[in-house]
Amino acid sequence: MHRRSFLTNAAAISGISFFPGVSRAYPADPFTPALWREMRNSDQTVIMNYRASWSLTCQIKADLIAEALADTPAYQQLTFVDVDWDTFGQSQLTQRLKVQRRSTLLVMKRGKEVARLVNEPYPRRVRALLDSALAA
Length: 136
What we know:
- The protein is of the alpha/beta class.
- 43% of the residues lie in helices and 21% in strands.
- The longest helix is centred in the middle third of the chain and has 16 residues, at 56-71.
- The N and C termini lie far apart (47 Å).
C-alpha cells in the first residue's frame, strides 16, 4: 500500500484530518503581543496552543480540543489562543515561557503558567489539561 493512500484511508476511518486547514474548528484568537499584554492582566484562564499549520501532532491536538469543547460545555468558558510556531517560536516570550517546541499547550492565568502539555496528542491528556484549566 502506498503511503499517501494509507494516510488518506486512515484519516477517513479515524475521523482525524491529516491535512492542514481541514479540521474541526475551535474558537481561538491568533496570538499577538497586544493580546498577551491584555491576557496577563486579566483573570481569565487562557490556553495557549503553540502550533504549526504543517504539524500533524498540532492538527490532532486541535481536533481533540474541538471534540472536547463539543462534548463538555464547561470548557467553553476557557479562552483559547493559537500561537503560530513559525512566527513566534523564537520570540522572547517563547523563550521566557521555556517553550522548546511546537505542539505545546500552556494553561495561563494572570500571566503565570498553571499547566503544560507537550507533544501528547491523546484525548485523556488533553481533557486532563482542560480540566486543570477549569480548576485554575
